[in-house]
């Protein structure tokens, strides 16, 4: 058999990847046939193979981690943003839950409002077409085109809230022309109205536009959405907000298989937020606010607070901070001028004095100190102490130096009930710091019992921004001031002065424990949460009375304290005798706290009624009152007069 010899000629084409390298056998055949061109097989080095494999594993791991983050960790948020940004789907904002007082009086309202939202990416481009669209939109919504362009450019989100709460006239024009503006859509929203304005603003708070930080950190919100900013609106946001729905946007041209235009459809119906039913009585709240405002204005004072509680349950019946602000200003987006007026007001209308103010209590501390002395058995309630108007105390470091601690006026020989009724400083100096042959509680035991009554811890009320209170002691003074605790510090603490700081809410909670015989209840504003489902009122959450502490003071000891407070109203020497003409029996204690001014004080009144079976505790405080102007007792009198007159009808 004859074989022809062939010679592989050079080609102009590169060797293709699919060509097979010749092995040893192929090489021998080449020599046999006289072929001169030889191809070599080059092995890949092992290090290079491992390097390629390592790079592949790193890239694959990174991609997997990113996919896991997007889907498992941030999936809900990204889904919401995608739905909000897609041209085919809009979020339907649900009706926010309604808030009612204890008698089912509606305190807030929802009204429809409309916003214009556009894509920032489209309007960030520079072209005559885009500039014309911006000018046309600005003309419709009556704003400056340059301001609108700057607003769009300054936003970091992919969607820009171009116009909010559009007027009805502008809305009609915008709806007719929305098809001319690509990647813009009209979204329905809710305008939140507050029926009582400043009277309830410190309780209800307000809703405001969601900001960039909130939007990036929360799921289920649209760029034009509202969120609770303060008060109950913030604390109960998860219940009030509801669940958004989805729909096709206005202006989208949807066609059927026959080419017919189909009306926009609802893809997912929104679910309204749940309703709140409060323990607060709207009429009582208004009465206290108006009475406090009137009395403060009469004496030229500007600031005060009041809290009313049911001592049987801890239910908050009213909570007032004066002055306050109108939360309706925030519903449609507050103007800069209005915001500046509020924020620059020296009376601080935003500040909730009822739960956040830091006040010395003055003589309102004395019933608690009396209860502590009885519980510690350092004095009999019948033992009399001679109140000559002052005590003289030698310095513990230099006996030649004598300090004088005075009272308002001499009261003579007084026992515990009389000392409470007349508010004897000398008596409470004695049982607080010790004097003569009478042992005192001392700072450690005073702090112990004030703490048991809740004066150095947050009450847990369902409102944001509560102050925890503060009770000074020797360790704190050494640490904070670099000085030792003195007898004078104990005497000052014994009558509610020094560095003691409490809130009106804490004082009201503590007096509720005196009124009910020794149970410290958590203050609660919301009574229950109910489903917002038409006529049905299915209870989602019922807040039952919650006991913080009980059995820390014997009831018989509190009975002595209660009798002293009652004598302060019924006896001719009592400081609260102006309350004796009310239609029910009342017990009360007043206080005057020094605040660093010679002629200005913080005034207190704490009252509970009826005395035999208390159903309301009312604490009123007035801040920076000139001299000893009457304000807190008259407010308590006017409010309780109305309250029990109403109950008798």
Number of strands: 25
Characterize the biggest β-sheet.
5 strands, antiparallel
Overall domain count: 3
- Strand order, largest beta sheet: 14-13-25-24-23
Counting H and I runs of at least 4 residues, what is the number of helices? 23
Overall form: elongated
Query: Based on the structure given, which CATH architecture of the largest domain is correct?
Result: 3-Layer(aba) Sandwich
CATH superfamily of the largest domain: DD-peptidase/beta-lactamase superfamily
List low-confidence stretches.
Answer: 1-13, 17-22, 36-40, 83-87, 250-262
How much helicity do the residues have? 25-40%
Strand content: 15-25%
> Span from first to last CA?
132 Å
Task: Outline the fold blueprint.
Layout: H1 24-33, H2 46-73, H3 75-85, E1 90-92, E2 99-100, E3 108-119, H4 120-124, H5 128-141, H6 145-154, E4 159-163, H7 168-177, E5 184-194, H8 201-204, E6 207-209, H9 212-217, E7 226-228, H10 231-235, H11 237-240, E8 245-247, E9 254-255, E10 261-262, E11 266-268, E12 275-278, H12 282-299, E13 303-309, E14 316-322, H13 336-343, H14 353-356, H15 366-375, E15 385-387, E16 390-394, E17 402-406, E18 412-414, H16 416-422, H17 425-433, H18 442-452, H19 474-481, H20 487-494, H21 504-516, E19 519-521, E20 526-530, E21 539-542, E22 547-550, H22 555-570, E23 587-594, E24 600-609, E25 616-626, H23 632-648
Parallel strand pairs: 2-12
Antiparallel strand pairs: 1-8, 3-4, 3-5, 6-7, 8-11, 9-10, 12-20, 13-14, 13-25, 15-18, 16-17, 19-22, 20-21, 23-24, 24-25
